[in-house]
Design brief:
transport, 931 residues, disordered N terminus, transmembrane helix, elongated, eight-stranded mixed beta sheet, ion channel, alpha/beta, disulfide bond
């Protein structure tokens, strides 16, 4: 008997050895085992089981795959239990499976992936979509479906496309639900949207309608009306049913479901009518699979297999392609000399005192090579290209966007990670450059809950009796803008009337209460008040709130209802015309330059005309008088001296043009000085204030203080003033008596101040551009709606009427007076003087070159005649004589003028003789007639 046992043992050992040898050889094993674990009776499991079985048949019937080796897939039912799924996966580790298709549950995947890492057995899940199943943490876990990261990105882009800012997430509170919603939160945040409320539901089977109702009642009290439902089919349908019962599937609501719903709609359609009634208008995502001939053929085959009782959904296609993915990878594994062998895990053998038999689990020695081939797979399946990206995700994630209507549903568009939202299939964009511009994002029209075709606003005021707390500053000055009724929380004023009128234009009620802010003794800090919005004390702030950069970083403002900006207010004095008013049009520098240029141009013309023009010759005294007379007479274009030279005429023409401009400017400025009342202030604007060290006033609580510090004005120069009366007193005293040189404040306050303070004026230009608006929390939809209402008030004239009611005042009677405009300075005419100066320089240069040329010829001639070089003094004397001597051209010109004068005199003499001869003839004829 003992011999028999020894023989059996030898045979077993021989069999093991033979198996090992065959694995190391070139021949392939007859059978390769793969496990599959999922819930058979679930929505996904029912279709996945059929798809996997059909895929195994197709693989084994295809001689080009595995080349004679039979693929065997061992199915394990997890019975919708995370624990049983984990146990089933552990059982596979005790067998000789080289890979496992599954698990279906993300919860089980988190647990069993640690085992896969240890035993080097790849797990390929066609249904676990949890985005936190990281390829870095779980290298042996592969996802043959799309991660929920992409699904949540698609939802975020839908929310952004319709302009909603907040959503409510209802989810099952497990790894699948929590991590999916976390991904949604991240993608929304990148688009300046957010999840305002997260409602978790227990994932257990003990959840009742009462539990769901408690959750939805809380949701109904929230502001947002955009609800994202991320759950399992059983819980998801219960949520939709209770929501329908509570009236939350009516007008104004938006429901967006993840792809759990399309899995049911595709595989179990048509659903009962009462079930369809609970989801009318819901938007649903479905994993996109491109149309192909193989997909249509498999769909036809599926209908025959199931007799049309079970539809084909995307998870069935994923399961089918997963089997083919494993088959191709195993085939490559064998082609590369891989062997199927297992070894014991020494770590598990060290665990003693346990009845779990963990030592039965062994390490797959060829796991790393098989994993490498899985990741390098590249073929086209029923779901499209099956290829992994570097992060081990399937390439080209895309979803169909479905709208549930009536007894069925229709597709309203697509989303892909490549092209975003579109009404065309994603495949049409892959050959083009990506275009994610807002103009390219399109969807067909949607029928929303309540059978509404208009896009829902997406939010309402919370239906929990809570009123909005609107902060209002307690002003102690300029109470025309905001003022509090004594002893109450009621306010009046321009800003309050604008806010009330805008709220009345909204298509919904805005329950609110005003909350005063400030101590009543001085104007509060508006920046501190705005910060209380972010702290949650206020739901908004209404008042004369300037829209400035540091405030826009923490809150959202409405459209400005008042244009504003900082201006400088300073005292002024009137300027009388006086006897010397004619000197005021030009500055002293300008007068000096004009005088110099008159003399300079006269000298230039004299130099150019002296040699050839008799009118510019004579004794030195006469020539000096000629220069002065010629220069000054050009001012009135009354010069009588003729210019003969070309250079002289060129200089004179340019100078006369300059004189014309100077005359015109002087006349216009003097006319203004003599006819318009002039006001004078030594301060010209903010720049002149910066250059002095005099004190500057600002309004308490205004942002003007911080702005002045930012532009370099020391804080020691800034004086806080709390009322218009303090403005006037400080300005009248001036810096010498403890007052201020000027006040910097916003234009609306200044205009109201100047309406009854006629001793001060705005000097310079407005040096900031801003406005007043109402502040609300970031991404508040109320800010957007109130902006539209403010624009309506502006367009229909109500805003102007409110302005006239509170701010229209009788202005000072100085409308015909203006602050002294700047005198005409040299910089205004620098171009003209530059042109004239250049022309004179060029003319003189040409003239002296001509003189030097003639001087050179004369010097050479003297050297030839004398036979010796001349001294330097003699050469200088020769040069001066050439400059002063009279040119032949001048003689010819003078002779020509003399000839012209003699000719004219002879003509006059002849005309006189003719007249006397005619007179004598007439006398003779008259005498003859008498005789």
């Amino acid at each position: 008997m003992n011999g028999v046992w020894i023989l059996v043992s030898c045979l077993v050992c021989f069999g093991v050895s033979s198996h090992g040898l065959s694995g190391n050889g070139t021949s392939r094993p007859a059978v390769v085992n793969v496990g599959a674990i999922f819930t058979f009776d679930s929505t996904i499991g029912r279709v996945a089981k059929i798809a996997i079985q059909e895929a195994v048949k197709d693989v084994n019937s295809n001689s080009r795959v595995l080349q004679g080796t039979k693929l065997v897939v061992k199915l394990q039912n997890s019975n919708c239990s995370g624990f049983l799924g984990m146990v089933g996966a552990l059982k596979f580790m005790e067998t000789d499976v080289v890979a496992v298709i599954g698990p279906q549950s993300s919860v089980v995947a988190h647990t069993i992936s640690h085992v896969a890492n240890e035993l080097q057995v790849p797990f390929l899940s066609f249904a676990a979509t949890d985005p936190t199943l990281s390829s870095l943490q779980f290298p042996y876990f592969l996802r043959t479906t799309q991660s929920d990261l992409y699904q949540m990105t698609a939802i975020a882009e839908i929310v952004e496309y319709y302009g909603w800012k907040e959503v409510i997430a209802i989810f099952v509170d497990d790894d699948y639900g929590r991590n999916g919603v976390s991904a949604l939160d991240d993608t929304l945040a990148s688009r300046r949207c957010r999840i305002s409320y997260k409602a978790g539901i227990s994932p257990g089977a003990t959840v009742t309608r009462g539990d769901i109702m408690d959750v939805l009642v809380k949701v109904a009290l929230m502001e947002s009306r955009v609800i994202v439902l991320h759950a399992y089919p059983t819980i998801g349908f219960m949520v939709l049913s209770v929501a329908h019962y509570l009236g939350m599937m009516g007008d104004g609501y938006v429901w967006i479901s993840t792809d759990w719903l399309t899995g049911v709609l595709d595989s179990s359609s048509p659903l009962p009518q009462d079930t369809m009634d609970t989801m009318q208008g819901v938007l649903v995502l479905r994993q996109h699979t491109p149309e192909s001939e193989n997909k249509r053929a498999f769909s036809s085959r599926w209908n025959k297999l199931t007799s049309g009782l079970l539809g084909l959904n995307s998870y069935a296609l994923n399961a089918y392609d997963t089997v083919w993915l494993v088959a191709h990878a195993i085939d490559s594994f064998f082609n590369q000399g891989g062997t199927i062998s297992f070894s014991n895990d020494t770590k598990l053998q060290s665990v003693e005192g346990s009845n779990l038999h963990l030592e039965a689990m062994s390490i797959f020695d060829g796991g790393p090579l098989l994993l490498k081939n899985l990741l390098q797979s590249d073929f086209v399946g029923l779901t499209g290209p099956l290829k992994f990206s570097p992060d081990k995700s399937l390439i080209r994630p895309a979803y169909d966007i479905i709208n549930v209507i009536g007894t069925g549903f229709r597709r309203v568009g697509y989303w892909s990670n490549y092209s975003g939202l579109s009404i065309l299939p994603p495949e049409t964009f892959y050959s083009k450059p990506p275009d994610r511009s807002s103009s390219s994002q399109k969807l067909y029209s949607v029928v929303w809950p309540g059978n509404n075709v208009q896009k829902p606003r997406g939010w309402v005021f919370p239906n929990n009796g809570k009123q909005l707390r609107i902060g209002v500053p307690i002003r102690v000055s300029y109470r025309e803008f905001v003022s509090q009724f004594q002893g109450t929380n009621n306010f009046k004023g321009f800003c309050i009337d604008v806010f009330t009128a805008a709220v009345n234009l909204l298509p919904y009620a805005v329950p609110h209460q005003f909350v005063p802010y400030g101590n009543g003794h001085e104007n509060p800090s508006y920046t501190d008040m705005v910060k209380l919005i972010t702290a949650g004390k206020f739901d908004g702030v209404v008042g004369d709130i300037a829209i400035v950069t540091n405030r826009t970083r923490i809150v959202d403002f409405t459209q400005p209802y008042v244009a504003s900006g900082l201006v400088v207010v300073a005292p002024f004095q009137k300027l009388n015309s006086g006897g010397w008013a004619f000197l005021r049009p030009f500055s002293a520098q300008m007068w000096g330059v004009i005088t110099i240029f008159f003399l300079f141009v006269g000298m230039v013309v004299w130099i150019l005309e002296h040699r050839i023009n008799d009118e510019f010759r004579g004794p030195p005294k006469q020539q000096l008088i000629t220069i002065l007379w010629f220069s000054l007479s050009t001012l009135f274009f009354a010069h009588r001296e003729n210019t003969v030279s070309t250079l002289g005429r060129m200089v004179l023409i340019i100078w006369l043009f300059v004189v014309l401009i100077i005359n015109s400017s002087y006349t216009a400025s003097l006319t203004s000085i003599l006819t318009v009342q002039q006001l004078y202030s030594p301060i010209k604007g903010i720049e002149s204030l910066k250059e002095t060290d005099e004190p500057i006033g600002f309004q308490v609580g205004s942002f003007a203080e911080r702005y002045l510090e930012e532009i370099g004005i020391p804080k020691s120069r800034l004086v806080a003033l709390g009322s218009p009366e303090q403005y006037a007193t400080a300005l009248q005293r001036g810096p010498a008596k403890g007052g201020v040189a000027a006040v910097v404040d916003e234009r609306p306050y200044v205009e109201l101040f100047l309406s009854n303070q006629c001793k001060f004026r705005i000097v310079g230009q407005e040096f900031t551009k801003s406005g007043w608006g109402f502040a609300f929390p970031r991404d508040s939809p109320l800010a957007v709606d109130l902006s539209t209402a403010i624009l309506t008030l502006s367009e229909n004239g109500d805003l102007q009427r409110i302005h006239d009611k509170w701010l229209a005042r009788s202005a000072c009677s100085l409308d015909n007076a203006e602050l002294e405009s700047d005198r005409l300075h040299l910089r205004s005419f620098s171009g003209l003087f530059l042109i004239c100066g250049i022309a004179c320089f060029i003319a003189l240069l040409i003239y002296f070159l001509q003189i030097l040329r003639k001087f050179h010829r004369t010097s050479n001639a003297e050297v030839v005649s004398d036979g010796q070089t001349t001294s330097r003094s003699k050469r200088l004397q020769t040069l001066l004589s050439l400059i002063d001597e009279k040119s032949d051209k001048s003689n010819r010109g003078s002779k020509r003028r003399k000839i012209d004068r003699s000719i004219s005199d002879n003509i006059e003499i002849d005309l006189g003789r003719d007249s006397r001869w005619r007179e004598r003839e007439s006398q003779v004829s008259s005498q003859n007639e008498v005789l």
